[in-house]
Specification:
By secondary structure, the chain is an alpha/beta fold. It has helices at residues 3-6, 19-29, 48-58, 77-86, 109-120, 140-143, 156-167, 176-185, 190-200, 206-232, 236-245, 250-267, 271-283, 293-305, and strands at 37-41, 66-70, 97-102, 126-132, 147-150.
């Protein structure tokens, strides 16, 4: 399992950093009538969705009543209408229903206008948690309806603590220079630090591990572009062009793709999306130690053709 999923905090006490935000949330949630609309903003990978899930749990929401939508894929007026039409239904098991809208800045203006009344006058059993990297793209009327929280990057000391929390219980030792390089190159993003750690976890030579960390940083954008292209089912010539531009080790790319689509598959409420993610995971299961970049090309080609 991808480390950024396996070691995702499940309670407020497990969160490293962002103490002011955590304490403010805890205070709000202890109120008899907590707000029904939250907005978490911050860089990708800083823990917005993790916080949203913890808040949902603290509100008494069961996993069956927690609805997560990626607004990049569910962004129009029809999605807003679906949410509004389902709001009146009581929760299946827990005390409430919670809608977590990731990347909510990607929604259309029609979506945002349609949701205004729902956000302001949500039923007692319904809560909304909006997550975004670009809050300035939201309508001011949306922002005014939310209790807003910013999720910040971690400092190097906090990243080192995060890495130690993963390694110490498992009695795994890694060269301190390698850990410091991860803390530096991850730029305070916990998800990125865990991805880097997982990709060098079995490498004993410190110099080799550091080179891999540097290549991960250099090629991060291209790998994300590849994952998005596969997810969107783009034409083969576009995907081939992205692969040509990536200089990282094919095996590290394969692991990154697996981590990306594992996250989508586990978080998707849509069967079609989950099935496509599972198909791509299957195509990237075999390692590339012998086949190298040819193996990467074959995995991507199969994903496009299916």
């Amino acid at each position: 399992m991808a480390y950024n999923i396996e070691f995702r905090p499940k309670t407020f006490n497990e969160i490293i950093g962002n103490r002011d935000t955590v304490e403010s949330l805890q205070s709000l949630l202890q109120q008899k009538d907590p707000p029904h609309t939250f907005l978490f903003s911050g860089l990708t990978g800083c823990g917005k969705t993790t916080l949203a899930r913890i808040v949902a749990n603290e509100l008494g929401c069961s996993e069956y009543d927690r609805i997560e939508l990626n607004s990049s894929n569910n962004r129009g007026i029809d999605t807003a209408r679906d949410i509004i039409s389902q709001m009146s239904f009581k929760p299946l098991q827990g005390k409430c229903k919670v809608y977590i809208l990731d990347e909510v800045h990607a929604t259309t203006k029609d979506f945002q206008h349609a949701m205004l009344k729902a956000l302001e006058d949500a039923p007692k059993h319904v809560f909304f948690i909006l997550c975004t990297t670009e809050p300035e793209k939201l309508l001011k009327t949306i922002l005014n309806r939310c209790s807003r929280f910013e999720v910040h990057k971690l400092n190097i000391k906090m990243i080192m603590r995060l890495l130690d929390n993963v390694l110490s219980p498992r009695k795994i030792k890694i060269n301190i220079d390698v850990l410091e390089k991860i803390a530096e190159e991850s730029e305070g993003i916990p998800r990125q630090a865990l991805i880097m750690l997982q990709q060098i976890i079995g490498i004993k030579e410190a110099d080799k591990a550091i080179k891999i960390i540097q290549s991960i940083k250099t090629d991060q954008k291209q790998v994300i572009d590849l994952c998005r292209a596969l997810n969107e089912g783009r034409a083969w010539n576009q995907i081939a062009g992205i692969i040509k531009s990536i200089e990282a080790e094919p095996e590290s790319i394969r692991r990154a793709v697996l981590g990306y689509f594992t996250t989508i598959a586990l978080n998707s409420k849509d069967k079609k999306t989950a099935l496509r993610s599972a198909m791509i995971i299957e195509n990237f299961t075999d390692n590339y130690y012998d086949s190298g970049k040819a193996g990467l090309i074959l995995s991507a080609f199969r994903s496009v053709m299916q």
